[in-house]
Amino acid sequence: MTDAPIRVLVCEDQALVRAGYTTIFSAQPDMEVVGEAADGRQAVEEALRLRPDVVVMDIRMPILDGIEATRRLAGRGVERPAKVLVVTTFNVDEHAYEALRAGASGFLLKDAQPAELIASVRTIAAGDALVAPAVTRNLIGHFAERLRPTDTARPALDQIRQTLTRRELEVLEQIATGLSNAEIAEKLSITVETVKTYVSRILTKLDLRDRVQAVVLAYRVGLVVAE
């Protein structure tokens, strides 16, 4: 018996781009495009109706933008949060980081190669967050100013330091700087499997859904600060 295919919902207002995504995903033996949406409101409606495994979401869409659509599908308080992969043009879209804060499980640039797009959908469908290290670094450099901690963040930071072990704090700091598990393992002189264990513990202890939320939290409370 084979595994069920990954059910993908494509949300993109440009018809040619949307058709391109659909063609790419449909050509994969382990994927099935179950629907398409041309605006944010339709994206929310279709995601709630179809319950896809992964929602591929453009940020800039009419009627309801991708950020708000993502928030309605995966934000805080959503009972059955969707797994959303945000795809956008980084150099144009200054609201990209907001999509991650709104609950997106992954972030990819529109100039990514088809193989990277396919791999990203598989990663998110498997339950892992995806922000490519290089993208994370760019995002941090471009948007972290907006996440500078306030005075109210201090109690939250103290709580995190009490909750996590010293090594877990070190791993969280490295995650926030955009390092991959392999890079963290090399920097801390531990195995990749050990890093994965630490990441899992961090997410569980801090009640975070994925790696993306860990990055946002680290900056929000001041565990790491943009240079």
Automatic annotation (TrEMBL):
Keyword check for Transcription: yes
Transmembrane segments: none
Domain HTH luxR-type: 157-222
Pfam families: GerE (PF00196), Response_reg (PF00072)
Keywords assigned by UniProt, alphabetized: DNA-binding, Phosphoprotein, Transcription, Transcription regulation
Domain (Response regulatory) ranges: 7-125
Keyword Nucleotidyltransferase: no
Alphabetized InterPro entries for the sequence: CheY-like_superfamily, NreC/VraR/RcsB-like_REC, Sig_transdc_resp-reg_C-effctor, Sig_transdc_resp-reg_receiver, Tscrpt_reg_LuxR_C, WalR-like
Residues bearing the modification 4-aspartylphosphate: D58
Name assigned to this protein: Response regulator transcription factor
Phylogenetic placement of the source organism: Bacteria, Bacillati, Actinomycetota, Actinomycetes, Pseudonocardiales
